[in-house]
Amino acid sequence: MYSVKVYVTYKASILDPQGEAVKTALHRLDFTNVESVTQGKYFELMIKKTGKNIDEQVEEMCTELLTNTNMESYTYEIEELTTVEG
Amino acid sequence: MYSVKVYVTYKASILDPQGEAVKTALHRLDFTNVESVTQGKYFELMIKKTGKNIDEQVEEMCTELLTNTNMESYTYEIEELTTVEG
Amino acid sequence: MIELQPREIEAQKLYEQWGLSEAEFDKVQELLGRLPNFTETGLFAAMWSEHCAYKNSKPLLKQFPTTGKNILQGPGEGAGIIDIGDGQAVVFKAESHNHPTAVEPYQGAATGVGGIIRDIFSMGARPIAMLDSLHFGSLDDAHTKYLIDQTVAGIGDYGNCIGIPTVGGEMTFEDVYQGNPLMNGMCVGLLDSVQQQKGAAAGAGNLIFYVGAKTGRDGIQGAIFASAEFNDEQESQRSAVQVGDPFAEKMVMEACLDLIENHADILVGIQDMGAAGLVSSSAEMGAKAGFGMDLNLDLVPQREDGMIPYELMLSESQERMLLCIKKGYAAEVIDLFNQYETEAVEIGTVRDDQQYILHQHGEVVADVDVKALVDEAPVYRKPSARPARLDQPSAGFEPDASKLADTLMSVLQQPAIASKESVYRRYDSQVQTNTIVLPGSDAAVIRVRGTNKALAMTTDANPRYLFLDPHQGGQIAVAEAARNIVASGGVPLGITDCLNFGSPEDPEVYYELEQATKGMSEACRQFETPVISGNVSLYNEFNGEAIYPTPMVGMVGLIESLDYVTTQSFKNSGDLLYVVGETKADFNGTEIQKMQTGQIEGQLFDFDLATEAANQQLVQQAIRTGLVNSVHDISEGGLAVAVAESTFDNEIGAQLNVDMPASWLFSETQSRFVVSVPATHQAAFEELTGAQAIGQTGGDQLTITTNDFDMNLDVKTAKKAWKEALAWQMK
Amino acid sequence: MKYAVIRFPGSNCDWDMFYVLRDQLHVEPIFVDYRETELPEDVAAVLVPGGFSYGDYLRSGAIARFAPIMTDVKRFAGEGKPVLGICNGFQILTEARLLPGGLRKNQHLEFVCQQQELFVQNNQTAFSNQFEQGEKVMIPVAHGDGNYYCDESTLQQLKDNHQIVLTYSENPNGSIDDIAGIVNEQGNVMGMMPHPERASEDILGGTDGLRLFQSFVENQQLQK
Ligand SMILES: Nc1ncnc2c1ncn2[C@@H]1O[C@H](COP(=O)(O)OP(=O)(O)O)[C@@H](O)[C@H]1O
Ligand SMILES: [Mg+2]
Predict the structure, then answer these.
(1) Which of C232, C430, C720, D64 is the most exposed place for a label (fewest CB within 10 A)?
(2) Is the pTM of this model over 0.90?
């Protein structure tokens, strides 16, 4: 079993209105030392080990579904869980 | 300067329709080995160093604004950037 | 959760935590002939809660007229039904989701919308419109602004996603709602009468089907929770919040409507799982038909592991429905729901006796008489006491209108008066392409496709009036709704309501409830608008302070020809202006009183139902004979506001010359309308109504001359201020 | 010839489109389920209606683009036949790469439903030939994710090829260059955020939207 974490954000050049709104709200709460905020999506997936290469699988999930590569970019982490599989 | 990453997801007992929708879609794309998907929010913040304790600050941002503690839980990572500050 | 033994429940009085009194617990014992177990205690606590059993409000609800010649279904089912001719009927109901919205505004409001929609399609009707009624604290509080923003987002997102237009509503702002805001939703549906459904499970051996989303631990005890007061401490210990899934509901809705329309022969009954989830839906379906049932809880689709029967039965997970299907047709139902990517699972069967039996892991976990659960809840008539504040001197507050234009500008920017556009533009009000009068006029109008008819709908209540006089205030709530329907060209058909009050254990609150419902009943009789459905939300208190008595009235009217559709905005220059109805110095409880004194006090002005009905008749007739170009009812803010609002849409000004003091422009005397009439119909209109013209439309200014002070306002300037005031104050 | 209205799970402007085609344009609409793998044979145009496919919980249109029918919609578009996506339909067509760019959350983060004034930037397309060049038209919007984005070079391309068909006179969502509707390079696939089906009857407040449909319906009838 793999525990996979995927992080998706708008590409750096694209204005992120949600992040901006959060920044404004934080400033209003007196966290004026917050310089920038980006808001993105976060996925936690549990993926069963199969014959297929997990990196390739996750890569494909990201480009096919989890991100719109026109405007978003992604990173991910894959951790193999050592527990015995049921 | 700190680079802070915050991950917010629904608490375990709360229905996550978004995660369910993504899981179903992945199955349809033949990633049938995906066992579960949780969709959450992800924030990247750049925070200027001040006299205040950064852990406490981030903790407060999380409970005050970034998460809805009624139904969401959060984790975060704080990294101090070693670059010289402008 | 630990399942206590029956003796322990009794000894530790666990039932009290769940809202059952000692006497009620004794009654349960008596009905069962033994001590109830943990699960059974939970079932009774939920089913006998105020929210499910109306134990405190039932005697008062009995006052309401509920029948009439076109009423096909009164209270008691998912929603009421009224015949509108041509083999069609309109179905509507309102529901409160106050407590969930206070705790978690986005999801609380969203699931409130989801719940009321299920009530409508469970009757076999296709939902065609949503309305809301929102009451919040004053806008100077940051948390209130957050609550409003999130509540509006929740209502909008749910309706927008499922594809039901949200076409109207109302909003007030008073300090008393700060800790206990109100979110009421109303849904209207259209039905081909032949498809009318009942929530009944009859016929031994027939199948009980669970359809829709899985059950989790969300909203457990929601019904009990809605039947208790609020305070600071509880804020943190809420059971899991319910999350709305409008996509799932859309699929469940389409599947259920398909089942009802195309497979009526195999469907015995259908009901939504609302408050008290599985137990209330299943027990009510059984009791209504006089049958018991066996349910196997192992088969209930579950989102979480290890749920005990108590949790499964009381969960308020959303987007679930219960069906009773003729035996032998399981496969057909499963297939049909699969078509809509929705799970349908057989979880039980109807019994020929009246026992309601739950099984889990091969054991019987509850075995009770279904009638005991549903029909034997105690009913209380509580002590009532007239609050002292109702006997205040009528002693008059007289508004200062010496700076008339400034005063009007200020009134136009009060949040209760200001345009609600910044709210309703977040709602898709046009999907289904039937909305012919969009939000912003007196009532919203939805055409009935394929006919020359339309439906007008509105929600109304003025809690300030009820605070000063619950009896007359109750009458006015219904009258104002009717006035809005009539102004739009409709004939009022009936109402639904949400009775939002404080704790009935407080004799003064109980008095308010008694008087308000009495007033509403009288008004319903006057306008021949029976109460066909509704909802009671008591215990709306925060730290011991009750809200204003707030009976929201949702009314639907029939517009018999599209030619009668009328809006409030002036259409042409040179039309004559009239006020139908008499204006008096009525200032207690008004917007101007609140604005100039910061208080709501004194004796409420007089109100006469017969006068109201007579004036409505006149306007109705004027519309039907084609005499008018616009009609606007005069409500909060008085004549000055009503005229100003009528100028805004098309930016057509007006010149008025009224024989009264300027302050009277802000009087809120009831039973009045502002009407614009083309000069060609002057004689006919004056003959019909006996009214005298007070001015005419035209230009780009609003000019008013009175006995003492005069004013002149640029329409565009006033419009901008009125339009932007609410968004501005929300910042 | 039939006009195919694609229905995804959760589509909710499907009937609105159907009624306009049948009752206002007097052509024959037909619903095509997302699970179908082929469009019916005699289809004149494909319409992808608005609504919230699959709830749009991930990204608007992201899941719908994998529906079985989309393969044949791509084939149909590839043959140069007309495909029109409205609101969620526009989002789906960008996700399916039948149109460039994508739609982000509205800049002010709120859903917006209102009458909207648009400018016709190109009246030479199959979807706009009933308008005057530069004409002002009123067609309502109702969306939460209508904020069009594409990168610099794509934008330049859109301009050079006159692919921008409609722009907002007052931008309601933050869209780049006020873009409300575009066509593909060939001009046979159009996506737009405003809802022309809501502006196709006087009783609903106007008929500017109807002319948009008439543009390609009349085109089809000419070709017959
Ligand atoms: N919360 C709301 N949601 C949707 N529409 C609203 C809301 N509040 C007010 N409106 C709309 O704004 C207009 C004015 O509302 P209101 O002042 O309550 O009218 P009236 O006094 O005639 O009942 C109406 O068309 C109403 O439907
Ligand atoms: Mg009104």
Answers:
(1) C232
(2) yes
